[in-house]
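Need tokens for this chain, all 277 residues.
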Amino acid sequence: MLAIVAAVVAGAMGLAGAVFALTRSDASDTVTSEPAVSEPGTEPPAAEPTPEVPASDPPATGAPASSNLDPVDDLMTIDDLLVWTSFAEDPLDEPAQQAEIDRLIVERTVAAVAHPTRVSTICAGIPVNAVIDLSITWQYGGVTVQSDPAAATPPGVGACLDNDGEPLAAGSYQVFASNSDLSEIGFATTFVVGAEGITQSFLNNTDGDICEVGVAPIDTAYYESFVVDGGTLAPGELLNIPIATVDQDLSARFCDGTDVGEFVFSPSASSTQNLGP
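Here are the structure tokens for all 277 residues:
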């Protein structure tokens, strides 16, 4: 069961995760989008072939929504922070890791949602507009495997997850900014090793307007929350979201704040997934 924390909407029922602004469409014209632990410090286990486990691929279409802060006038909190990620099949040395972190902070891209074969390094960049103390928290299968404390200064901070040159284990990884006890968590970004990435179409098959859609692999701790550019997904409209080909938890919310429902589904690029039961 995925934890739900405040991310898009304040309050205990906000869906957590990296936010992507997705374009609306009706059912006849689907819109695509563009990208916009055991204990901390332990290392993930070595890779084991498990094809069902998630990995990340370049997002098909959909842009991660930025926070609602003015980059100059507003100060950030941990809850505002977005994470941008990339992966490498081969190990990266420290200078290469730092170069990748710097690139992610500037370019603000997510390289992929899944990768079917070897992954040796995952890097994350977190842009900031003010000095802020945080930890860059990595989870594997919903458990923290690495936590990197950082005094972040503009333009940003980052970290990479590797396994001392060995491939990372197949499975679902999430990375997010947090405080030391995880009572404050930013938007999580998910990457799955050992699966393909697809664009999944979601249909609002209910009678009401939907404002949030939370999706994440079933072995992760947090949803990634997706919102519609323009505010609402009306009945009969579709969203396209890039996800990995592993079983996913799905939770949607009506615009009045009530829940549509929660359930598990198996992704398929050739079929449309309903948002309601």
